[in-house]
Fold this protein.
Amino acid sequence: MARHTTYRTGGPAETYIYPKTTEDWSFVLKLARTENIPLHILGFGSNILVGGKGMGGIVCSTRRMDQIAAKEERITAEAGAALDKVCETAVNAGLCGMEKLSGIPGSVGGAVYMNAGAFGQETFDCLEYVEVIDFEGRPAMLQKKDLPHGYRHVDGIENYIILSAGFSLGKKDFSSLTEARNSILHKRREKQPLEFPSAGSVFKRPAGDYASRLIDEAGLRGLSIGGAKVSEKHAGFIINFNHATPEDIKQLMEEIKRQVREKNGIELETEQILWGEFAS
């Protein structure tokens, strides 16, 4: 799984496949259901840490579901399309509402699943509908109002596999949108450790504060365990700077939570998702 996650570490998957059509998904879902096989859905692996012992069952990658289409003031994108590519498509079409999501390294499906956001803008701000299939193989079209959502969570979305999403945007002049997108991409390069493998922000933002500020205040910037380190550039990131094992990263997450809890009494909530079996 090191090849399929942005941390660039992780043990093997028992089975790794690329469903593309509704029929593909229906077949896989029926197989998993009748044979009682665990099923995992993966986009770009930009918010996932897989244990060093790997994971059983079937991992379904959406990467071959990557079509994007813009028409009038709407964009539709399949689950495996890069969110940043959707943002670029919107800007090039003179459509506003997604430009601040530029540079987020995940897929459309992953962004919808967790209501990904940045710089005050969230995926659900301009989401219109989601095309899904449930785990019984039944397709459905869910409107935004059908999915209660908030900061980095969407209620009930875990009951579905996301196939595509539709976004309703506004009109704005191309030059100002391009300027806004370029500014966001520049800020990311300037403030985030993009030169190292990572999975973005490790922890959710506590109410009225920032995880990175709390981590910094606890004196943890640069703290390392094995090949994993709290980024010196942005304390909210853990980077794989020297062939980190998944266990290095997991232990560092736990140490950060422990020290912030002891210093500030605040329990940081992990934003990233842990899969598979970790070595003790």
Notes: Residues 246-264 form the longest helix (19 residues). The chain has a mean pLDDT of 96. Residues 70 and 161 are 23 Å apart (CA to CA). The longest strand covers residues 160-168.
